[in-house]
From TrEMBL:
Gene3D superfamilies: ABC transporter involved in vitamin B12 uptake, BtuC (1.10.3470.10)
PANTHER family: ABC TRANSPORTER PERMEASE PROTEIN, SUGAR ABC TRANSPORTER INTEGRAL MEMBRANE PROTEIN-RELATED
Localization, UniProt: Cell membrane
Taxonomy, superkingdom: Bacteria
A GO cellular component annotation in the UniProt record: plasma membrane
Keyword Transmembrane in annotation: yes
Protein name from the UniProt record: Nucleoside ABC transporter membrane protein
């Protein structure tokens, strides 16, 4: 095994790219769960966003329109979940699992005619001056725009939850929806908006895989990324900045195992491929999660 072939600067730069789809999906799910809703359909919304974004980008020639299409596709699928759980009061866990299965099937159908087609290029941003800083520049300031969009969304969600009145209302709904309803807040409306935001973010995460990481359409290309996003939300104790750390941890292990494979590590490829998921499980076991929102997973009955 030749470890000298692993460039640490390139490794750290690749970490940010590998973490971005997980980060986008996880930050959306964090908002959903802070509103008291447990949506296990993240994987389905990600794969739907991946195929919607790819189809729109290929037909329009614009990756930016592809990301818009992915966000719309993910949000529309999340509306199905929202209607079933918030209006028809179906079980959130069962509905989320069904949403994942539906998304996987729908994406396979929509993507049939796009297998083997290359997505429009999405160039990196080489930020002037900052990109030329030794070591830090190549690691932080020479990425595609969606890496920075993900960081901006994390910062925006943190500020929204901590400082805005709307964020306070959302947290109140998630902690005790009965008390929030008694104060005059529209619980179902707040939750539906949170669910749609989560779906849009999951769609963006899926599109990042099909338009930037690969970039082509392959059935099942999310490969469990939605489930990892769910785990990272718990690891982060429903806090945006800890979520960023969790996403980068998973991204780092993912990139490291790929580099070890390329360096000829004397470890079976199957074991190396398992490493990111095993690391996620280990972290969840070792670190104690914080208290979940009080109304998480509970349906709201307005007649009470």
């Amino acid at each position: 095994m030749d470890l000298s072939s692993i460039n640490p600067i390139l490794l750290l730069a690749s970490l940010m790219v590998a973490a971005t789809p997980i980060l986008l999906a996880a930050i959306g799910e964090l908002v959903v769960e802070r509103a008291g809703v447990l949506n296990l359909g993240v994987e389905g919304m990600m794969i739907t966003g991946a195929v919607c974004g790819f189809v729109v980008a290929v037909n329009s020639g614009s990756p930016w329109l592809g990301f818009v299409g992915a966000a719309v596709g993910g949000a529309l699928l999340s509306v199905v979940f929202g209607v079933l759980t918030q209006f028809l009061l179906s079980n959130q866990v069962a509905t989320g699992l069904a949403l994942t299965l539906f998304g996987l099937g729908l994406s396979a159908l929509l993507g049939q005619g796009y297998i083997g087609i290359k997505a429009p290029s999405f160039p990196d941003w080489d930020i002037p001056l900052l990109g030329d800083i030794p070591i830090v520049g190549p690691i932080v300031f020479q990425h595609d725009p969606m890496v920075y969009v993900g960081l901006i969304i994390v910062a925006g969600v943190w500020a929204f939850l901590k400082y805005s009145r709307a964020g306070l209302i959302l947290r109140a709904v998630g902690e005790n929806h009965e008390a929030a309803h008694a104060l005059g807040y529209h619980v179902v409306r707040v939750r539906m908006l949170a669910i749609m935001f989560g779906g849009a973010c999951a769609g963006l995460g899926g599109a990042y895989l099909s338009l930037v990481r690969v970039p082509q359409w392959t059935e099942g290309m999310t490969a469990g990324a939605g489930w990892i996003a769910l785990a990272i939300v718990v690891f982060a104790s429903w806090r945006p900045w800890r979520l960023l750390l969790g996403a980068y941890l998973f991204g780092g292990v993912t990139v490291l195992q790929l580099n070890l494979q390329a360096a000829g590590a004397a470890i079976a490829v199957e074991y190396l491929s398992m490493a990111p998921y095993l690391a996620t499980i280990a972290v969840l076991v070792i670190m104690r999660a914080g208290r979940a929102p009080g109304s998480l997973g509970q349906s709201f009955h307005a007649s009470r």
